[in-house]
């Protein structure tokens, strides 16, 4: 099973090296990959329909409880067959649709990795693996939507889709971690056995919300639906494959997979019914206002996904059955309609529904496919669509409460979807052929065969539903936690309320098709309400976010050194000050302090005078000299308080610094008074408070007892171990010799840097500019 | 004397920060030097000051006979002084070089990496 999943990825990797072979006439061979996988999965049908569940597990990260656990049951099998089966047709179709495209190999590479990721998603039994594959599908979808990467609209749609589904992926990861916390395992099959405990847990509500967040974003439920119409910027095979038949159903898959674990509670069912119900009605209604064929199909896909969420929410046996059938119905007719749209686009170079009619005169097989798909989508017998619709109505009719509302919602949705299906499948192939399309040619066999095959399958399954009944439908219902033994699919359900509703649906929908003609006016009409559409609200939010981030960054990272320092100091002052207020005790033992002599008073006064002179003088030279005085006073303090080595060092270093300063000083500009009075006052206040805080801090520390343990150790061992009598020296060159060595290295590096800056010559460019400025300065001086 | 020293440490810190907040590069360096002196003095003070008893073993003795100043803060400060000299000298030369290239001492005019801004 792992091999089957990896095949898609291996195929893409292979294309990196063998891509140029696939670009030419051999491109059709690429479709052998999904075909092979399809055949591989069909061999499991018989064992799965006997109720078997095939498990495979490979160790991955056992310490985290993460393994490559795969599970093939009814639900996964249905999805795997759809992924590989429709994948095969789409791969084949692409070879003709993108014939001779410069990046055909790249396209196949994306499709291949998507197929691998999607298979991994539906087969994973471990939530972490599920998450990884989930994200991989989002990423491959991103590349496929943005395939026409020279088109800005494509890139934007790709980013939107990645953003929305990426957020959903994070929800899934959070949900996985939370469920692991509750259940103690990442394995979904193990969670199945402790459904009761999970539902009783206090974090159940949060877990459900996270899973919903993941499913609703991936499956384009309101208010996250808007990325899907945008995703139609992708080439049509992608729309067929990812954004209608498989990837967008990953959210539905997740909900179905977790129905037996998390389902059955009020919050689960009600939320799904409300969100699904609203989405299906809202987007079915939207199809009326679209003139782009793919726009119509995008909104009807969202609506179909809404129906599936709605059915999952109903939570009854009948609803599971209806959902299982509807997945197949939808995959068959919607993929057909997309492929047909792709052909129309490819041959006539337009998808504008108002300009398309009568194409059956040119491409009859395509027309047959389109019309059959439209009939299946409308739920007209003898298609599988009819079976699906009957089951859906029955499930809603038998729901526990609010039957009337649910029935109205589902019937209205179905009427509108019928309209959408007719517009996409029948309108282009009936009526008069417009002049502009008279030169359109019949597409090749490889293009029209896939949609026709899918459309015909829709009819065959409708006439003889027993073909898929025990093979696919029953195992899916079992996977969702239902009892499948009583299920019996049939085209004719008898004459009852549901049948009457079906007739009404077909009648009203057909009437609608003849009354409402798609037009630009309608499309413009709905555009007026764009400002309350979720995508625009999101866009505004994005802009606001960027604005705030901009403000935030520019406020703190403004490029002015002194602002950085002010903020750091202010922060420190506020934080330390806040702690110190109330905690300061001033509990110094005055008797322990050393006595003050006249020398010290004098030194202190000189020091203070030196500091203030350094700060306030107008002359650079005076400032540097005063700084030297400050250094020498400190040197004296060291002398008074038993630190002769420090005094020596301070003395020499201070002298050196002053000399160096004076040496380069004559090249520096005059001291300029750059700040105004206000700024200086503000800085002065800040510095004073900071200084006060440091003083208080020092006094507080002085009142605490001190330990001389480390010092005593060095003092005791200085002569005995290291044979030196000056303890400070011994520490530096012996006990901590390695540190001193590193210090010397740092100094050498600084010396090299100084040398470089002093001696190395400017680059030509800089030298010229230097000369220019010199010249202009001289000229100015002359003028004066 | 400790209180006096603590006060001086505060003054050194305050004036150091004040100088660092100026727009002139020369003042920035002076500020760093003042701040460094303040920090050294602070460490020295917090290690407790002792008068007239340097940590040097006298005469023929092998260990200290009487009280002595703690050598550890002194060793730390000695290192700090030397390292800060490396920093200061580099900064001074860097300022000089920067001034040669961009012809300004005003930090506000040096806040972009682009040449023409």
Average pLDDT of chain A: 86
Rg of chain B (C-alpha, Å): 20 Å
Largest sheet of chain A: 2 strands, antiparallel
- State the helical fraction of chain A: over 70%
Structural class of chain B, please? mainly alpha
Order of helices and strands of chain B: HHH
What's the CATH class of chain B, please?
Mainly Alpha
Percent range of helical residues of chain B: 55-70%
Unreliable parts of chain A: none
How far is the N terminus from the C terminus of chain A?
89 Å
| Major sheet strand order of chain A | 1-2
Helix count of chain B equals 3
Largest interface: A-B, 102 and 90 residues
Radius of gyration of chain A: 39 Å
Q: How many strands, which pairing sense, and closed or not: the largest β-sheet of chain B?
A: none
Q: How many beta-strand runs of chain B?
A: 0
Helix/strand/pairing category of chain A = mainly alpha
Mean pLDDT of chain B: 84
Number of domains of chain A: 3
Number of strand elements of chain A: 2
- Poorly predicted runs of chain B are none
Layout: helices, strands, pairs:
The complex is a heterodimer of chains A (784) and B (117).
Chain A: H1 2-23, H2 32-42, H3 45-49, E1 54-61, E2 66-72, H4 74-97, H5 104-123, H6 127-145, H7 152-183, H8 188-193, H9 195-200, H10 204-218, H11 227-231, H12 236-245, H13 250-262, H14 266-286, H15 293-314, H16 317-348, H17 364-378, H18 384-397, H19 403-425, H20 445-463, H21 466-479, H22 497-515, H23 520-527, H24 534-556, H25 561-580, H26 598-616, H27 620-640, H28 644-665, H29 677-702, H30 709-722, H31 727-735, H32 737-759, H33 764-783
Antiparallel strand pairs in A: 1-2
Helix pairs in contact in A: 1-2, 1-5, 2-4, 4-5, 4-12, 4-16, 4-20, 4-21, 5-6, 6-7, 7-10, 10-13, 12-16, 13-15, 14-15, 14-19, 15-16, 15-19, 16-17, 16-18, 16-20, 16-21, 17-19, 17-20, 18-19, 18-20, 18-22, 19-22, 25-29, 26-27, 27-28, 30-31, 31-32
Chain B: H1 2-20, H2 25-46, H3 71-102
């Amino acid at each position: 099973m792992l091999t089957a999943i990896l095949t898609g990825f291996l195929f893409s990797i292979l294309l990196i090296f063998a891509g140029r072979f696939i670009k030419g006439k051999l491109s059709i061979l690429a479709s052998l990959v999904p075909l092979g996988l399809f055949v591989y999965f069909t061999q499991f049908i018989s064992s799965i329909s006997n109720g078997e569940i095939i498990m495979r597990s490979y160790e991955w990260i056992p310490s985290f409880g993460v393994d490559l656990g795969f599970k093939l049951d009814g639900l996964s099998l249905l999805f795997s067959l759809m992924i590989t089966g429709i994948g095969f047709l789409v791969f084949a179709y692409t070879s003709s649709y993108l014939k001779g495209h410069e990046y055909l190999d790249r396209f196949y590479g994306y499709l291949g990795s998507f197929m691998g990721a999607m298979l991994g998603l539906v087969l994973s039994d471990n939530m972490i693996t599920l998450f990884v594959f989930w994200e991989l599908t989002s990423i491959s979808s991103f590349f496929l939507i943005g395939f026409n990467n020279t088109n800005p609209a494509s890139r934007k749609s790709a980013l939107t889709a990645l953003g929305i589904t990426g957020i959903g992926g994070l929800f899934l990861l959070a949900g996985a971690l939370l469920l692991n916390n509750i259940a103690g395992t990442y394995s979904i099959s193990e969670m199945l056995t402790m459904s009761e405990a999970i539902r009783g847990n206090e974090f159940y509500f949060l877990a459900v919300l996270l899973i919903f967040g993941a499913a609703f974003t991936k499956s384009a439920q309101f208010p996250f639906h808007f990325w899907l119409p945008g995703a139609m910027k992708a080439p049509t095979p992608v729309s067929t494959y990812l954004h209608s038949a498989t990837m967008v159903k990953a959210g539905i898959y997740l909900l179905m997979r977790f129905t037996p674990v998390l389902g059955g509670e009020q919050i689960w069912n009600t939320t799904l019914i409300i969100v699904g119900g609203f989405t299906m009605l809202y987007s079915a209604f939207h199809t009326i206002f679209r003139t782009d064929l793919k726009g119509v199909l995008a909104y009807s896909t969202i609506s179909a996904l809404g129906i599936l969420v709605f059915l999952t929410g109903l939570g009854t046996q009948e609803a599971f059955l209806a959902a299982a059938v509807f997945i197949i119905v939808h995959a068959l007719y919607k993929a057909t309609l997309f492929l047909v749209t792709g052909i129309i686009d490819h041959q006539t170079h337009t998808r504008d529904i108002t300009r398309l009619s009568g194409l059956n005169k040119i491409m009859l097989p395509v027309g047959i496919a389109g019309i059959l798909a439209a009939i299946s989508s409308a739920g007209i017998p003898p298609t599988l669509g009819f079976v699906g619709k009957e089951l859906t109505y029955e499930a809603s009719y038998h729901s526990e409460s609010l039957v009337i509302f649910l029935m109205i919602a589902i019937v209205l949705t179905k009427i509108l979807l019928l309209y959408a299906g007719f517009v996409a499948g029948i309108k282009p192939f009936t009526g008069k052929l417009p002049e502009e399309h008279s030169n359109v040619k019949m597409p090749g066999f490889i293009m029209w065969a896939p949609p026709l095959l899918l459309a015909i399958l829709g009819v065959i399954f409708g006439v003889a539903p027993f073909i898929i009944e025990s093979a696919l439908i029953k195992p899916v219902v079992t996977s969702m936690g239902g009892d499948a033994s009583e299920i019996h699919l049939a085209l004719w359900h008898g004459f009852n309320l549901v049948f009457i509703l079906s007739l009404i649906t077909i009648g009203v929908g057909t009437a609608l098709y003849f009354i409402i003609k798609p037009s630009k006016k309608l499309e413009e009409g709905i555009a007026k309400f764009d400002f309350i559409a979720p995508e625009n609200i999101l866009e505004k939010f994005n802009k606001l976010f960027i604005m705030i981030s901009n403000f935030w960054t520019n406020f703190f990272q403004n490029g002015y050194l002194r602002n950085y320092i002010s903020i750091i100091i202010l922060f420190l002052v506020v934080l330390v000050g806040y702690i110190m207020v109330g905690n300061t005790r001033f509990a110094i033992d005055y008797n322990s302090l050393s006595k003050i002599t006249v020398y010290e008073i004098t030194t202190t006064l000189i020091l203070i005078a030196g500091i203030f002179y350094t700060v306030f003088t107008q002359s650079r030279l005076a400032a540097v000299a005063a700084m030297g005085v400050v250094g020498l006073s400190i040197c004296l303090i060291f002398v008074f308080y038993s630190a002769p080595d420090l005094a020596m060092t301070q003395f020499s270093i201070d002298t050196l610094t002053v000399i160096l300063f004076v040496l380069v000083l004559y090249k520096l500009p005059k001291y300029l008074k750059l700040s105004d009075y206000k700024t200086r006052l503000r800085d002065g206040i800040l510095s004073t408070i900071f200084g006060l805080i440091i003083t208080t801090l020092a006094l507080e520390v002085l009142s605490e007892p001190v330990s001389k343990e480390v010092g005593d150790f060095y003092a005791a061992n200085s002569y005995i171990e290291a044979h030196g009598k000056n303890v400070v020296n011994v520490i530096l060159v012996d006990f901590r010799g390695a540190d001193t060595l590193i210090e010397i290295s740092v100094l050498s590096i600084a010396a090299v840097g100084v040398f470089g800056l002093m001696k190395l010559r400017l680059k030509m460019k800089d030298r010229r500019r230097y000369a220019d400025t010199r010249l202009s300065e001289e000229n100015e001086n002359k003028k004066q | 004397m400790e209180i006096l020293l603590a006060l001086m440490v505060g003054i050194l810190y305050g004036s150091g920060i004040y100088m660092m907040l100026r727009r002139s590069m020369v003042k920035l360096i002076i500020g760093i030097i003042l701040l460094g002196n303040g920090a050294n003095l602070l460490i020295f003070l917090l290690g407790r000051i002792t008068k007239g008893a340097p940590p040097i073993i006298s005469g023929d003795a092998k260990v200290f006979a009487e009280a002595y100043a703690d050598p550890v803060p002194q060793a730390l400060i000695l290192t700090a002084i030397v390292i800060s000299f490396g920093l200061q000298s580099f900064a001074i030369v860097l300022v000089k070089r920067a001034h040669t290239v961009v012809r300004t001492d005003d930090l506000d005019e040096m806040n972009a990496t682009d040449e023409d801004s």
